[in-house]
């Protein structure tokens, strides 16, 4: 199966290990992974701030970059949900309507791809630690991926799982919100990191680097002994 | 009052909300109760998603055919002895009520809870007409006594106050000398309000839903105050937003079932009251004189636009109760009598962007609101549309943001530029990096690093790694 990696700009620049882990996991299950170099950013920072025309320039680049891909898989529920939104955003565009719809149809978040497309729930990983999990909002509510990460984590050996209190609440990231409304964002991430600390977990696992950088950054600021990591790190621990 | 509350700028309002520990304690515990209540009630009902779809269909059908149902409602009210007034503006609505009060030479008015009368500032208009107006919903009464403190929630208006604060208000304004026990506070309010009900000349209510087929205005309450306000005074006035209508009693059954569960986690409230016109010859109760004031006040401008579904709202506040932003800043921070996600959507539509352009940005777009809404209003999508209008039509984005987004568009559409920036990021941030993190970032990063650390960019970008790997390098 041929899979094109959608790295997401955040992981490309800020967390390249997430990309490496994603590639290795996919290859372990027989996927042939390529990386279309023309990809940039899904456009979400501009789109969610209201700069839709500007966002579309980046989106068109993404549509072009992935036009020949069979499957597009990325390590972020939020960015993949953005790709899905292209179908609607370009529906009246004579040039991009069709490829936008195609991109939406063939794009998956990594845990979603593993569980729903490859039918794998046990990746054969071992991770000896006490962990909790943050279910990112866009991943669960916009993309609709709720169970896949839990199913995969359930089968990781050595993992002691503690549910995060108020796990359905946003961490306060919200893209440009974190900077634009940093006073509100601070209260939200403060509450979230307190809940993380309460669980006594050594690791906070998530499937979206935006949320992980936000909560992880707060945990680091408060000097808490909890590391925020991407789920691919756990799934690639063999 | 009116839809807008206070004059402080957005950032100040937010700071005030965040530093109010009493309010935040009250809000977070209330949110906790109401969230659990809603989920339990939804589960008990079963097939909640199907109910939501049904609710959405009823609201959507009604709004699409609003002209027809308004005509039907109006005809039915008139047939049952009532008078109907269509008010295009808040002023017209207030003036009509003032005239009724003057004609009746009314001195005392009792009122049951109504958001639309807050929106149009009716109480001030009544006082201007020389009459006394008394709010009879417990929450609203507390706020009225407390020097007209505005509501901070659309279902539980005094949510931001704790019982000690309420005791102090009662003591100061009404000479209350008992404890802060809720039972004693409620008994005192009941005793005070009963006297007002018995001596009122006019009763004013809002309207949860008007039933078009019969001309009935229905009210959903837990305290029974609406029933007293609608059975004792001989003159009754109901004020409704023009969208608050359902075609039939069967439809009412569905939307009330959704409303009480979504709002307070109850299968049904203690009272569902229906008022239908005046006392006719063969009837033993009902008012002598009944007026229905149907308020537009900007609503018809929303009809037929991409925001039409915002008018589907049944004012249950489920979106407010799940909102993590509301949780931390409280209702007053929104600067509107309609707070939370629905307030951030509705307020700019009804009152323009000039005073409310920050509201659509007061959300992380987490979509908890959209998920909770019992009539499936895509609230977070409306917030994005508002942002688009603010930026691209109203041209109200800050200059620095516009510049940054110009840069973003170039960066995102030119892979070579993107690649270069990915390569340079670590070096560019080096002056601020210590121990693989940035604690005091420059420019736009400052907002981030003021409250949390920012990681140093990766030593090697992913694309660089992938390329060298393909060449058989560091696999």
Automatic annotation (TrEMBL), chain A:
InterPro entries: Cys_rich_dom, LutA
GO molecular function: oxidoreductase activity
Gene Ontology BP terms: lactate metabolic process
CC annotations in GO: cytosol
Source taxon at top rank: Bacteria
Pfam families with a match to the protein in the record: CCG
Cysteine-rich domain location: 3-83, 131-215
Family: Belongs to the LutA/YkgE family.
Xref: PANTHER family: LACTATE UTILIZATION PROTEIN A, UNCHARACTERIZED PROTEIN YKGE
Function: Is involved in L-lactate degradation and allows cells to grow with lactate as the sole carbon source.
Name by which UniProt lists this protein: Lactate utilization protein A
Species name: Pontibacillus litoralis JSM 072002
Source species taxonomy: Bacteria, Bacillati, Bacillota, Bacilli, Bacillales
Automatic annotation (TrEMBL), chain B:
DNA repair found in the keyword field: no
Residues binding [4Fe-4S] cluster 2: 323, 366, 369
GO BP, sorted A to Z: lactate metabolic process
Ranges of residues in domain Lactate utilization protein B C-terminal: 385-471
Binding site residues for [4Fe-4S] cluster 1: 313, 316, 319, 373
Domain LUD: 70-295
Pfam families: Fer4_8 (PF13183), LUD_dom (PF02589), LutB_C (PF11870)
Molecular function via GO: 4 iron, 4 sulfur cluster binding; metal ion binding
Renumbered residue ranges of the record's region Disordered: 434-456
Domain 4Fe-4S ferredoxin-type: 310-377
InterPro entries, A to Z: 4Fe4S_Fe-S-bd, 4Fe4S_Fe_S_CS, FTHF_cligase-like_sf, Helical_ferredxn, LUD_dom, LutB, LutB/LldF, LutB_C
Alphabetic keyword roster: 4Fe-4S, Electron transport, Iron, Iron-sulfur, Metal-binding, Repeat, Transport
Domain of life assignment: Bacteria
Job description of the protein: Is involved in L-lactate degradation and allows cells to grow with lactate as the sole carbon source. Has probably a role as an electron transporter during oxidation of L-lactate.
Family: Belongs to the LutB/YkgF family.
HAMAP family: LutB
PANTHER family: LACTATE UTILIZATION PROTEIN B
Protein's name in the database: Lactate utilization protein B
Provenance organism: Pontibacillus litoralis JSM 072002
